[in-house]
Amino acid sequence: MKEAHDIIKSVLVTEKASLLSEKLNKYVFRVAPAANKIEIKKAVETLFKKKVASVNTAQVEGKKKRERRADFGRRPHWKKAIVTLAAGEKIDIA
User: Which pLDDT tens digit goes with each residue over 48-72?
Assistant: First the structure.
């Protein structure tokens, strides 16, 4: 089995993610592209010691970028997970 630190890369702190955490008790993480929902759930529970209610995932396509040339480059594709914690649970992201 993969280590929890290999599955969860970082916590996404954006305006939308902070609104989700304040109002709906959902937290957004950048995760490994090969990780599935069960692995993500176990990783969050072991790293933060919180009970996870559900996990939603999304593949995010990397943006096309152009730098003074006619050909395009691309930022890498990545995967994000929106984790809903059980009632009464909170993660302190500071």
Answer: 999 999 999 999 999 988 877 777 8
How far apart (Å, rounded) are the C-alpha atoms in residues 24 and 17? Answer: 10
Contact between residue 50 and residue 25 where contact means Cβ atoms under 8 Å apart: no
Dist CA 32 CA 72 (whole Å) = 25
The answer to whether 57 and 79 are in contact (CB under 8 A) is: yes
Could you give the CA distance from residue 7 to residue 4 in angstroms, rounded to a whole number? 5
Q: Locate tokens 């480059």: which residue?
A: 73
pTM for this prediction: 0.88
Q: Which residues of 67-84 are buried (b: 16+ CB within 10 A; e: fewer)?
A: eeeeeeeeeeeebbbbbb
Cα–Cα nearest to 80, from 22, 43, 28 = 28
